[in-house]
Amino acid sequence: MAAPYFFGYGSLVNTATHTYGDARPARLQGWRRAWVHTGLREVAFLSAVPCKDSAIDGLIAEVPEADWAALDEREFAYDRLPASEQVQHDVAGAPEISVYAVALEKQNGVTDQHPVLLSYLDVVLQGYLQVFGEAGVKDFIATTDGWEAPLLNDRAAPRYPRHQRLSRAERSLFDSLIADTGARVLPG
């Protein structure tokens, strides 16, 4: 039996944050991304939200031997949902594909007390830049809702456990694109 895959649309696009193999670009139809908060985490983070007229780019990667335990632990605030029929990819056959999303009834409003960590956003944008180029980063921003959420500038002391070092060019690009969203950046 073929191994299942997950569809990643945030930090999982940055392959420096995991060791799952056979990672490749894919597209999830009928979904968008949004910044959300849930009582299960202190800070806001990305979730996929149903939206019939939208599609988001991301990566799929193989879950060896269908051992979901480690990934479920990493994504503990999410529900793992079937998405095989909604993902366009180039894997031969018809692998089982799942996506992680926070149930609407578990979502709270994003506030200054529950900001988005800039170190987390940097990881996501870096992944999109590496896989999809600058156009992919811009598309990520365009297909993500909730930019009114405050961003906490924790770059000097990253709170995101899988943070990555940015090049000067990456930081400059990301800061420019973040500024274009109108998002408020709170001091760390």
List keywords for this structure.
single chain; 188 residues; alpha/beta; Hypothetical upf0131 protein ytfp; 7-stranded mixed β-sheet; 3-stranded parallel β-sheet; 10 strands; 29% strand; globular
List the helices and strands and how they pair.
Elements lengths: L4 E4 L15 E13 L8 E18 L6 H6 L4 E4 L4 E2 L8 E5 L14 E2 H25 L1 E2 L5 E2 L15 H14 L3 E2 L2
Parallel strand pairs: 1-6, 2-8, 7-9, 9-10
Antiparallel strand pairs: 1-3, 2-3, 2-5, 4-6
Helix pairs in contact: 2-3
Major sheet characteristics: 7 strands, mixed
Low-confidence stretches: none
CA radius of gyration: 16 Å
Q: Say how many strands there are.
A: 10
Report the CATH architecture: Roll
How many domains? The number is 1
Shape: globular
Q: CATH topology, anyone?
A: Hypothetical upf0131 protein ytfp
Q: Residue-averaged pLDDT, rounded?
A: 96
What name goes with the CATH superfamily? Gamma-glutamyl cyclotransferase-like
Structural class: alpha/beta
- Alpha-carbon distance between the two ends: 48 Å
Q: What percent of residues are in strands?
A: 25-35%
Helix-residue proportion: 10-25%
- At the first level of CATH, the class is Alpha Beta
Tally of separate helices: 3
Order of helices and strands: EEEHEEEEHEEHE
Description:
This protein is of the alpha/beta class and 188 residues long. The protein has one domain: Gamma-glutamyl cyclotransferase-like (Hypothetical upf0131 protein ytfp, Roll), CATH 3.10.490.10. 24% of the residues lie in helices and 29% in strands. The protein contains 3 helices and 10 strands; from the N terminus they run E-E-E-H-E-E-E-E-H-E-E-H-E. The strands form 2 sheets. Strands 1, 2, 3, 4, 5, 6 and 8 form a 7-stranded mixed sheet that branches. Helix 2 (118-142) crosses helix 3 (168-181). The relative contact order is 0.21.
